[in-house]
Design brief:
Two copies of one chain form a homodimer. With 352 residues, chain A is of the alpha/beta class. Chain A contains eleven helices and 13 strands. Chains A, B: It holds the Pfam family Aminotran_1_2.
């Protein structure tokens, strides 16, 4: 506390990201990073850019990158916004579309950054309880006062919501923005991007941190109708002209060209996910149906917190949220096959 | 305009950065970039980091980089905040220390992003007219209601304010934060950082974009007492956990070690600045006393706008602000000796 702090500084309750222990030998299954490196073409593009023009500002509009993303999704460049990770894109979206006099809605179990943004920007919110099976009750999101936001697939539950549900939610909120946070969509079935042309109130947010193996580069983006995108651009241009540095722009452009590389890698993660789920089931775990690069699971006898602590002691980091309804679940990122085998080696010690 | 925009989106008036024409052969003297490349050690550090761990999130605290900056300034790590360019650090500072019910003050001729931030965050402001000679009238900054911000040296005037003036302004605003935006300080005499230990309300903001030749990398930082820094950290951690990517952190760390390289480069820019000023004086220009890597100048007969337009036609970009009091001035970045010779070659055509 300080007498110099603004009301916003006093009011906010900062987000706490997953532990970033950089001890050698640790197995990091706690922040949903991809265990595989980005395409070699990304590294080459960054190296080339580093040797060239770092003394000059980046493009404030990053038009070339926007064009590439637009082409991949059958959209126009004016329907794409890019930012410094999807967290920044989310922050700008809260500023651009939500207001302090209108209550927004999100699930009670969801990305825990949403209430943090809401408090920072003084936006009232109500949380909608997920159903018993942790699925999203769509009707509860109809006729919101100020807007709706949820991840799809949801985090940390890993559960995917079908697009016809999302379509209904958008139709039932015709005057509010409905934000679909698709951080994990490449590990799931279809993206809501195809609804963007029909629903001018749907904003889809994606990231390169997970499926593109670029958590260290900080690139996220939003897709939506031109009015929504120009709203985001107004906020960004009132905040920081150049949110993406030259290296991030160059690396991101290269990643979007390496489609075969990333398709193979995503398949690999999904294959590992499937055998991991079977192996967990065999050991008395219940696993929620995952369409992400992580799984959310609970064991029939060992408490989740104990699992988290004991795995940590043996050098394996997973994520435990000490929160109502999910206090007996852990979130485990899908690593390489080898890392998962080491996980099971340790789990077998703990369970026996 | 869109019915989905928030009040903030409707209210804001985005900043317009200098033109980023990427035509080959153009001479860019319009955005105060450094004409020289960063230290080769910076490029090597980035290349090394790019080949290593881009799939993992960066350090959310960037402690190692903060420690290095702290050591350079004789401060503790807890007195340093780092961000995605000094523009982001400024935006966070407006959020962290200024409030919608208290009027802040900045000069009428100054960095034109300040009113943009103020409008975005709904912070009332009053502008203090610079004196006839474009210097800052210190008494006018005493007893502000909500806080004070100004660049030192000021931009676009290039004029440096002595530290005893700043000390008085800080002493006369004991309950408000006084932000000194030192984007150009390495081309000037002493930084206000040495006041930070004595004045808990002084926040100094610096950037790597100018004197470190890293405009393309987006790294800025703030120096102040621990309470101010923890206020900034609260805001940042409520906005985006990882504002600096791995490459920016690695490059910035390397740059702060290459002290000899950057000392030589800064001397070179200052030497070019001095002969440029003399050469302009000889041609009927009046040049304000510059302690920056740019000069602010007016010609006795040729209108500033005409100078800007005619130089642009010949492939030389300078900056022209069509604003009261400075509508007959242009801002010219100090380029290489060769670039400045080409500038004079063109100026001689225009003036003759």
């Amino acid at each position: 506390m300080s007498r110099f702090w603004s009301k916003a500084t006093l009011r906010c309750e900062p987000y706490v990201p997953g532990e970033q222990l950089n001890q050698p030998g640790i197995i990091k299954l706690n922040t949903n990073e991809n265990p595989y490196p980005p395409s070699p073409a990304v590294v080459r593009a960054i190296e080339k850019e580093a040797a060239n023009s770092l003394n000059l500002y980046p493009s404030p509009t990053a038009d070339q990158l926007k064009k590439r993303i637009a082409d991949l999704h059958g959209l126009k460049k004016e329907q794409v916004f890019v930012g410094n990770g999807s967290d920044e894109v989310l922050a700008f979206s809260f500023m651009a579309f939500f207001d302090p006099d209108k209550t927004i809605r999100f699930p009670d179990i969801s990305y825990s950054f949403y209430p943090v943004y809401a408090r920072l920007f003084n936006i009232p919110f109500e949380t909608v309880p997920l159903q018993e099976d942790f699925t999203i009750p769509k009707e509860a999101f109809f006729q919101s006062q100020g807007g709706v936001i949820f991840p799809n697939p949801n985090a940390p539950t890993s559960i995917y919501l079908e697009l016809d549900f999302i379509e209904e939610i958008a139709a039932q909120n015709p005057h509010q923005v409905v934000i679909i946070d698709e951080a994990y969509i490449d590990f799931a079935s279809e993206s809501a991007v195809r609804l963007v042309q029909d629903y001018e109130n749907i904003l889809v947010i994606q990231t390169m941190s997970k499926s593109k193996s670029l958590a260290g580069l900080r690139v996220g983006y939003a897709l939506g109708n031109e009015d929504l995108i120009s709203g985001l651009t107004r906020i960004k241009d009132s905040f920081n002209s150049y949110t993406l540095d030259r290296l991030a722009i160059a690396g991101a452009e290269a990643a979007f060209q390496a489609t075969d590389y990333y398709a193979d890698m995503t398949e690999k993660v999904k294959t590992t996910r499937e055998w991991t789920i079977s192996a967990l089931n065999q050991r008395g775990f219940t696993v929620l149906p995952s369409q992400t690069n992580f799984i959310f699971t609970t064991h029939e006898t060992i408490p989740a917190e104990e699992l988290y602590e004991r795995l940590k002691e043996s050098g394996i980091l997973i994520r435990y949220f000490n929160k109502p309804r999910i206090e007996n679940y852990v979130r485990i990122t899908i690593g390489t096959d080898e890392e998962m085998q080491q996980l099971f080696h340790q789990l077998d010690q703990i369970i026996k």
